[in-house]
Amino acid sequence: MAVRSNGSSCSMSHPMEHKETKWLLSFNHRYFESFRHFVGAEEQKHRVYGNTEVINTTHLFEIGGTRLINNRWSIGFYLPLASNVRSSLYEHYGNESSNPNARRETKSFGLADIRIAAYRWILDPVVSTKGNIQFGLGLKLSTGDYRYHDEFFRNDSTSIYGPVDQSIQLGDGGTGITSEINSYYNVNKKIQIYANAFYLVNPREQNGVSTARGGTPSAAAIKYGSNVMSVPDQFMFRAGAGYSMNQFQAAAGLRIEGVPAHDVIGGSNGFRRPGYIISAEPVLLYKQSKAQFYLSVPVAFVRNRTQSVPDEIRTKLTGTYYKGDAAFADYTVNFGLVLQLK
What we know:
The protein is mainly beta.
């Protein structure tokens, strides 16, 4: 699934803690390896047993800069770099091939989609000392290459170049609108409750990139609308509680993220793998002077590949219910550093 957002870190500090700070500089890294195939919520275990699974290894690096205008307003700029490796049989020789060279890799590396956002604390931080709510609104720019090509092998001596799979494209080809809610509440000096929500609205329906990997789209793909990549919305919600111990904080919560089948604005046809992941998310933070380090490892316990619009069209035209598959990871690793600068 093409869920590219780094998500947020782990908790929110009181904005008055940064009253001497003009800039926040952040470095974030997200890693996961997806290889477990699901149709709906049912895992297709035979894919791993039969060595036909697709394995995506993703590293997403994000450099962020936040300008604190005053104790309520701030502007953020986020520059992501992505490195992806996709290992499969079916995109090359085919899943039925017994050739030892059949499993091949396609790769992508470079700048992903840049994001700019403005944020405002709703309550006056001087008055609201126990908790607050922050709203954010921004733009996701189409800076990542959404037509990234690599080599696909047909046999030991023949290969063609074509667009890599949607899951490892560097961008989605759309200019989107982002909305965020970040909130926290200090129950006491030790216990904190937090919640974050993020939604990306992508009005563009399709980006014109073929899903045929350099070949000719099949008649079925054209008929059902999956021959061209869609530009999907994305979402994330997380909530939990933390416990502070001097400079350390341990937190735990739930996280849900995914790609909807239908967008809020614009059409939803074209190829996408909609679905969602629900994870248990343990978090560790360490604060020292002007720096904060964090590590979170969401562990998935629900993975569901839902029906896409082309799946719905195929079901209607054939009279047989159909739902494609998607590969999910067991867990993701998010870690990073936030620096306060004058």
